[in-house]
Design goal:
heterodimer; A: mainly alpha; MetI-like fold; 2 domains; 3-stranded antiparallel β-sheet; 3% strand; B: alpha/beta; Rossmann fold; 6-stranded mixed β-sheet; 35% helix; 25% strand; globular; MetI-like (chain A); ABC transporter permease (chain A); cell membrane (chain A)
């Protein structure tokens, strides 16, 4: 941390200091980072395959590579089904296996439940199962990951496009700006939801399709602030001085004005992230989101609505979403305050 | 400035005896306002910086006290803390009392202060454009102050407002009631500010640099008005200024402030004749002096313009055809020989900076610009880029003209990166050389702009321009944002550079004293037009045009 701090210029050093002196923002960031990093390794936390198998003196990692059943002395050439009693017996004869803490993946249909699905929380299924007999904890872990990854990619994508468009509009002004602004107004008026429904009829929505479509409408979020920053920036004396030095436009934009615009951008990013999480969740809830069967928080919300007799579904979805959004907003507030030069803590 | 709350070494306080003599009314009476050991400090995070350190003074009825000092000396902070207008709780007072009508104002809550502000104590700010609300009429703004404190309706306040406008000598007061601030000139706006400050017949008026933002000819009128009002109403006036000329004409007592401390307190006449403190003497000497660099008279022409015009469209028809145009520069024909300095003078809005930007091709213009025999007004921007290293610019505000995110070395070498392909060592060498030349230490090169003083920043801006070895340097009010003592140093530096490098300057300023110290030729501009041009000697001593004569009288007199 200290070496990073020293490489930054004093303004950013102060901001970093301000952010980390705000306990709420600091802890929110740490908790978020821990949860996110953990969720990146979801396969090792919740899976219906063992993490490691010691069989006949050899070590196998079924999560990373697929082994046929014959490897463990079975009959079929297909991949071993580790939830099958027979396969487990085969492994236990000549070795042993380490299982992840939750022995179900997001798409594992659990057979032989005591209650009909959705079944209430038990010692095996900590938060119960959904109406297709899948473990809720496993689905939450995977759903959390996909929400964050989707939101991150969407936010980074819209930042890149938005900053670029805003920068060009603001810096050159005049006709470019005029045309750009009118386009943005029309674009902003398009009914996104209807377009999504139409799209869903033409292509099967996948993670990347959904991302592309959302990016098409989300990039406008940053254009206005960045444009305003560049409009102001191009008349600053040091920008004029750079022009008089003969510095090319692209360098002036990148080196002299962009850092100013980044303040507005960075401040907005955590809120954009929260917005993207909400967007994906609501699309999934409506059924226009991720392909059927994929783990998602929105789908869990929909299940909660469909199965009011099983409150653990709705409660889980609510708690996870609320916690995630709260963390992001707290981080966002911390960032915003750190970038505010007038604010004094205490 | 980042002094921790250190104990003040005893400052020799000049005796206050006889300080209140000039006003016959004062003397024995208790003072209107008495400030004792006032300190102001700011905290940012865990850092505490003290900006005013135990300052004490008294103001009597009918007396003018001037707080003099350079920027950052804490004079405005002192004034603002009397009215508790500082950003509390970021700012706080480690010590001090402000006694007014036998009450300590520092103990007052913000709501109690509202009874005092604008009622018992009025305040005039530096910038009349930003201190007035652009969305309200004059009547409403002055009326608001009256209605707020006297509990009457705007309609009933109208005669009072008219009376006030007459007092501050606004002609046709009746017709001005419905005007908005932007419809008035700078001087008139400042008169409105004064009217607002006087609206409730306060006992004390605080004027924070009341004339700094105004043109020289207007400054004089406003000061005369303030003096007259102060005499008529027997006000206690606290005048804050950096300009000793203003002090000379206005004040009875003077406090000289340096870095938050009062270094000298004395009668106005004594300050000018027998300054006790070394810093006061330095302030008094702070006037650019000397003559422009001697050069041989027959040098070739470097730059000339023919019929140069700059206009902005202020109103367009539906189809984008310009309907109304504002001509910022009209048919400017100028000519400057190599190695000389061309001074451009004029009041704000006269188009001098616009002319400079047009010559630099940073603004669209019509007409011809000839530089070193090539017609640069016709060259396309992409081809012009390579030629830009030959004509460079230094801007007015050294705080705005340096990117806050780059180190001094990065700023200075930016031009080199564009125009030459030097290795890193060669570049560092060149940066070091030019920093030495402008009087900066090379060891400072990794600092950021905010770690430099105003004068040093202006040196960085000059170094950035010089590193490309330009033959023409356009200086757009390079000394206006600097303190007087620093101005002198910058003018000396510019003169030395011209002598050694044979630079040609176009020097833009509203300050005739600075122009006089540097220029060989002078152009006087008014409303976008060149009123008079000629040799410096002739324009300064025997101006032909009435406007030039008026300008000379107001600023050199």
């Amino acid at each position: 941390m200290n070496s990073l701090k020293q490489r930054l210029n004093p303004i950013n050093q102060r901001r970093l200091g301000m952010f980390f002196s705000n306990p709420r923002a600091k802890w929110s960031l740490w908790i978020f980072l821990v949860l996110f990093t953990a969720s990146l390794f979801s396969e090792f936390i919740a899976n219906n395959k063992p993490v490691l198998v010691f069989y006949d003196g050899g070590i196998y990692s079924p999560i990373l590579t697929s082994y046929s059943e014959t490897t463990f002395g079975g009959d079929f050439e297909t991949e071993a089904d580790y939830s099958d009693e027979y396969v487990i017996e085969l492994i236990n004869e000549k070795g042993w296996a380490i299982w992840p803490p939750i022995p179900y993946s997001y798409d594992t249909h659990i057979s032989g439940l005591e209650h009909p699905a959705p079944s209430p929380p038990t010692s095996k299924n900590w938060l119960g199962t959904d109406d297709q007999a899948r473990d809720v904890v496993a689905r939450v872990i995977y759903g959390f990951r996909i929400s964050i990854l989707f939101a991150l990619t969407l936010t980074i994508g819209s930042c890149i496009v938005g900053v670029f468009v805003g920068a060009v509009q603001g810096y050159f002004g005049g006709k470019i700006d005029l045309v750009g602004q009118r386009f943005l107004e029309i674009w902003g008026g398009l009914p996104v939801l209807f377009l999504l429904i139409i799209m869903a009829n033409i292509v099967t929505p996948s993670f990347w399709w959904l991302l592309a479509i959302m990016l098409l409408f989300n990039w406008t979020a940053l254009v206005d602030v960045v444009r305003a920053e560049f409009l102001r920036g191009r008349n600053l004396d040091y920008v004029r001085a750079a022009k008089a030095l003969g510095v090319p436009d692209n360098k002036i934009m990148a080196r002299h004005i962009l850092p100013n615009a980044m303040v507005a951008t960075v401040t907005l990013v955590p809120f954009l992230l929260a917005g993207a999480v909400t967007t994906l969740t609501s699309l999934d809830f409506l059924g226009f989101g991720m392909p059927p069967g994929s783990p998602s928080l929105g789908e869990l919300v929909a299940q909660g609505k469909g199965n009011l007799q099983a409150p653990w579904l709705a409660l889980t979805a609510f708690t996870v979403l609320a916690a995630l959004l709260t963390l992001l907003v707290f981080i966002g507030e911390g960032v915003r305050d750190a970038f505010d030069p007038r604010l004094v803590t205490r | 400035m980042n002094s921790k709350l250190m104990t003040t070494p005893a400052i020799p306080q000049p005796s206050l005896s006889g300080a209140s003599e000039p006003s016959a009314l004062a003397g024995t009476k208790t003072p209107l306002l008495s400030v004792k050991d006032l300190s102001v400090a700011f905290r940012q995070g865990d850092e505490i910086s003290e900006v005013v350190d135990k300052i004490s003074f008294e103001i009597h009825r009918g007396e003018t006290l001037a707080l003099v000092g350079e920027s950052g000396s804490g004079k405005s902070m002192t004034a603002l803390s009397i009215l508790k207008l500082l950003p509390y709780p970021m700012a706080f007072h480690p010590s001090g009392e402000v006694w007014f009508e036998s009450e300590n104002l520092l103990r007052f809550s913000q709501s109690q202060m509202q009874r005092i502000r604008g009622n018992r104590i009025g305040m005039i700010f530096q910038e009349p454009m930003t201190a007035l609300n652009p969305l309200h009429t004059i009547e409403k703004q002055i009326g608001e102050v009256i209605c707020q404190h006297r509990g009457i309706k705007l309609r009933q306040a109208r005669p009072l407002i008219l009376n006030l406008l007459a007092k501050v000598q606004i002609p046709n007061a009746e017709s001005r009631l419905k005007s908005y601030p932007h419809e008035l000139s700078g001087g008139q706006r400042q008169r409105i500010m004064i009217a607002m400050a006087l609206a409730n017949e306060p006992d004390i008026l605080i004027a924070d640099e009341p004339t700094t933002a105004l043109d020289v000819t207007v400054q004089k009128e406003i000061l005369q008005l303030l003096k007259k009002l102060q005499r008529d109403e027997e006000l206690g006036l606290l005048l804050i200024t950096h300009d000793l000329n203003v002090v000379k004409h206005m004040a009875q007592k003077v406090i000289v402030m340096q870095r938050g401390r009062a270094v000298e307190t004395a009668d106005c006449s004594l300050i000018f004749t027998k300054p006790a403190h070394e810093y006061t003497r330095k302030l008094l000497l702070g006037k650019p002096q000397g003559r422009p660099v001697e050069i041989s008279s027959d040098t070739p022409e470097l730059l000339s313009t023919k019929q140069l015009c700059v206009s902005f469209t202020t109103q367009k028809s539906v189809f984008g055809r310009p309907l109304k145009q504002f001509h910022a520069v009209k048919n400017a024909n100028i000519c400057i020989e190599s190695g000389k300095t061309l001074g451009i003078v004029g009041e704000s809005g006269s188009g001098k900076s616009t002319l400079a930007l047009a010559i630099l091709r940073l603004l669209k213009s019509t007409g011809e610009i000839n530089f070193k025999g090539s017609l640069i007004s016709e060259i396309r921007e992409s081809n012009l880029r390579a030629m830009r290293k030959d004509f460079q610019v230094v801007f007015q505000d050294p705080f705005a003209s340096l990117s806050p995110r780059m180190t001094a070395a990065e700023i200075i070498q930016e031009g080199l990166n564009v125009h030459s392909k030097l290795s890193a060592e060669e570049r560092a060498q060149r940066v070091g050389d030019v920093m030495n030349e402008v009087g900066l230490e090379v060891s400072m090169q990794n600092r950021y702009p905010h770690e430099f003083s105003g004068g040093q920043r202006q040196r960085i801006a000059i170094a950035r321009a010089l590193i490309l070895n330009p033959s023409l340097l356009i200086l757009d009010e390079p000394t206006s944002a600097l303190d007087k003592t620093v101005q002198v140093q910058v003018v000396d530096l510019l003169r030395n550079l011209q002598r050694h490098r044979h630079l040609t300057y176009i020097f833009i300023s509203h300050d005739l004293q600075v122009v006089k110290a540097l220029s060989h030729k002078i152009i006087v501009m008014k409303d976008g037009e060149i009123v008079e041009q000629g040799d410096a000697e002739q324009v300064l001593t025997r101006p032909r045009e009435p406007y030039t004569q008026e300008l000379m009288a107001a600023s050199l007199g």
